[in-house]
Amino acid sequence: MANSLESAVWDVLRGIRFPGMSRDIVSFGFVDKVSADGGAVRVALTIVTQNAEAARQVRQQAESAIAALPGARSVDVELKLSVPPPRQEAAQQAIARDPRLIPEVTHVVAVASGKGGVGKSTVAANLAVALARLGYRTGLLDADIYGPSVPTMFGIHERPRVVGERVVPFERYGVKLMSLGFVVDADQPVIWRGPMVMKALEQLLGDVDWGALDFLVADFPPGTGDAQLTMAQKIPMAGAVVVTTPQDVALIDARKGLAMFRKLNVPVLGIVENMATFVCPHCGETTDVFKRGGGERTAKELETEFLGRIPLDGAIVEGGDVGVPIVVGQPDGPHAKAFAALAEAVAAAADRHTRQPMSIV
Ligand SMILES: Nc1ncnc2c1ncn2[C@@H]1O[C@H](COP(=O)(O)OP(=O)(O)O)[C@@H](O)[C@H]1O
Ligand SMILES: [Mg+2]
User: Fold this and answer.
1) Residue 123 C-alpha to ligand 1 middle, in angstroms?
2) Intra-chain end-to-end CA distance of the chain, in Å
3) Are 27 and 350 in contact (CB under 8 A)?
4) Antiparallel, parallel or unpaired: β 162-163 and 213-219
5) 152: Cβ below 6 Å to ligand 1?
6) What is the pLDDT of residue 290?
7) Which range is least confidently modeled, 85-89, 186-190, 191-195, 330-334?
8) What is the per-residue pLDDT across 311-333, written as a single tens digit (0 to 9) for each?
9) E strands within 49-196?
10) Are 304 and 258 contacting, i.e. CB atoms less than 8 angstroms apart?
11) CB 121 less than 6 A from any atom of ligand 1
């Protein structure tokens, strides 16, 4: 468990920018570890740069800022320097992963599933709102270009504004929203091929004025395909959350989803079990619809974390249909609690799996 001094240290580190860059050292992935044991603060930094002087400045800045924290009795900032890959390789990486697409987004969290209909979009939408409620600046990118559902789930049926060259995302319940569904007619079947998928996603990232966000939750098409591939190649992702249902067969699909992200070098943050238990609308009692404990077992079998369990409830369907996510419609209900716990677990997991350090040449 992180204690309050530890989180204060993380806050301090988030305020430190690499000299000459606009990003902070946490979002660059330079902070490996923070611990604060009875006031003894230890921080481990690995900075990928050729500019050793700048890295030392960062360390000094960190040391003095942490020393000024109440409760910090000693400060030890360990600095490791890592030399970036040769220029040509770096250039190739820069083409592949282009952080300029969304320079001010700290964590991109992909919500994925092995197959459709497991509640991926529902989980993505409610997770985004729950993260916003925890105080994180949050966006939701509907990357399910084959079946966008953010317009319906948030009740938005108009086109986004364009200011200058950039599209302004909608904002509902504290979450910035963008979906191809805002610009493509719902009854027009869209047949996307690889390069078009790539172009569309690039625009949803780079042409949208997302601004500074702590989390961008991305709702992916089910299965494994071009969209996931494109995103994983284009932007550094903090990790993937895999949604599954309690039936045994879902395990096979979840396994496929996990394998794909791992192959793409995107860390899997864990799995969420959706439609796990049934909450009686009359008495509020909870019943297991399927075998209990499947989520934990699945997580263990797939060697990943179990992030949480969302109950089955008709109110979720209704909320999705009228454009009011359940965490907004019933903020004190069991689902809101489940999603708040999920948001906390996702935030903690994203922090642990900080993105791979990017190089500053
Ligand atoms: N926990 C839940 N309880 C009841 N219905 C749910 C739950 N999660 C999702 N649903 C419903 O299941 C259907 C499919 O969900 P959706 O989020 O669109 O899945 P996906 O994005 O994986 O295709 C929707 O009608 C949705 O309202
Ligand atoms: Mg969906």
Assistant:
1) 8
2) 35
3) no
4) unpaired
5) no
6) 60
7) 85-89
8) 888 888 887 788 999 999 999 98
9) 74-82, 105-112, 138-142, 162-163, 166-167, 170-172, 175-179
10) yes
11) yes
